[in-house]
DNA sequence: ACATGTTAGTTGCTTGAGCAAGCACCAACT
DNA sequence: AGTTGGTGCTTGCTCAAGCAACTAACATGT
């Protein structure tokens, strides 16, 4: 437990620092972009985005502000609901996300996977998912 | 990896929320107090505290401000170095820390350990320590 | 059709944390 | 002793994120 709490404090900062150094994206920006990029048509409702990125609506709203300002996403009215907005990944956004993906993968490898040792990845990943989303037992 | 990043986003908030609900301490406050309580004489230099809690000096300085304001620690001049300050746990601090410890343990059990399944705790803890402090291979 | 309630998203305010600049003290050389 | 450089801690500023309050649009009952 002790080691877990330390991990929770240290690792996010390392990953974020690497990403910020290599790209102009924060870890938050990056994960939001990843979610958008994986949605059909590379577009996603703000609310779903908030759920996916485990952030509040206001948080997402401001992240999308930033990303829009630097041209990586656009806001478009939701076709089926006049209140809703979709965040839509632009070409530049896709390009920049791919670059960031490379950087992030290298960083993750260096900080995490190189230290794993004899850990059983599958069972740990399962456990992590249960911890993060306990109400959804194993969908 | 995906599951790990989600864990890093979600778990700290859960643990912190539980602690804040049950006590008047944030997770940061709690971990700082734990470190102080484990030091000899329940006193610890600010710098060491910063290292232990994986925070910046300015961060620690403000946490100790808070804790001092509510009477859980005192600041005392370091005996051997006129620049240094020790954070010293008070009786009230010890008491309140113990209460928080109980709450935190229950919370950790509910959120984490109940979901672990067939994970080998020892190897995972080792791996986490290596990830958090890679320069200290296994002290 | 209209009034009421509910949901999607944004904005004002506050809080917590880091960086950089500053201050106080130590250490080492002359 | 005096100066010069390095260390320990605090403080001003900035930024990211959440909550609460608000607006706009849907949905439902009459």
Automatic annotation (TrEMBL), chains A, B:
Domain HTH marR-type: 1-133
Pfam families, A to Z: MarR
SMART domains xref list: HTH_MARR
One GO process term, biological-process aspect: response to stress
GO MF annotation terms: DNA-binding transcription factor activity
The protein, known as: Winged helix-turn-helix transcriptional regulator
């Amino acid at each position: 437990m002790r080691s877990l709490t330390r991990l929770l404090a240290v690792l996010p900062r390392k990953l974020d620092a690497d990403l910020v150094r290599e790209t102009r994206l924060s870890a938050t920006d990056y994960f939001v972009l990843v979610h958008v990029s994986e949605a059909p048509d590379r577009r996603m409702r703000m609310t779903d985005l908030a759920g996916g990125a485990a952030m509040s609506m206001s948080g997402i709203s401001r992240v999308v502000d930033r990303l829009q300002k630097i041209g990586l996403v656009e806001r478009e009215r939701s076709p089926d609901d006049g209140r809703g907005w979709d965040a839509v990944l632009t070409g530049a956004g896709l390009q920049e996300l791919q670059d960031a993906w490379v950087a992030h993968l290298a960083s993750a490898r260096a900080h995490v996977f190189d230290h794993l040792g004899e850990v059983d990845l599958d069972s740990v990943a399962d456990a992590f998912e249960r911890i993060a989303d306990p109400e959804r037992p194993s969908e």
